[in-house]
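From the pipeline queue, job 12 of 40. The input is one protein chain; the requested action is below.

Action: predict structure.
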Amino acid sequence: MRRAALLAMLLGIACAASARNEPNGCRAFPTPDGAKLLYVASDMVLNGVPMSIKEMRTKDAPEAVLAFYRREWGSRKPGSFETPTQDWRTIATFEGRCYYTVQVRAAGSGTYALLGVSRKPDVRPQAPGAGFPMPMGSRVFNDLASHDGPKSGRTVMLGNAQAPQQNVQFYRETFERQGWVSLVDKQVETEKGPAHMMLWKRGLEEASLTVQRVGNRTMVVANLVDQP
């Protein structure tokens, strides 16, 4: 669920209760009194942009949380920007090279929020999907990398017009050529219809792939984990 929330946020962002800066160098900003914070990812990169994300839980209602950030950001340029969606309300602002967002929804009588901050890279980042094999004509929708001490992970979501079986054959041949060992390679049924699941192992590395037709595209979601 957390991974789905992160991909849905795309460039969602915001805060810290302590006075120190965020891991990506952006200034930490205040949270409402009594709020409880938990890092979801302190060191991650989404489509080449460094960012960190936390969960926040507070007894304050969503409107009170939004009002808190309106006061914090409203007194200086560029102010704040708000975007309502079906399940969430989002407030965001810029500060120099940093972009902050707070995404809130009701949780009982209080609020659950996703907070984060991203920083514009000093140099032009690599294109999303760089270094990951993909069939010709593929488009990368998301490339999310995270680091937790010595452990690292990466999720790549891409799509192309080729048939699912062509994608399966491409990854089967490519991973075998690169020295991966196949552990799972089978058709499965999902809520969205038939899909093909693949699980590969190479030393301490593990890769799981899901290949599925969605509309007029074949979608591939690859999760890569380095487990020292």
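Job complete. The two ends are 25 Å apart (CA to CA).
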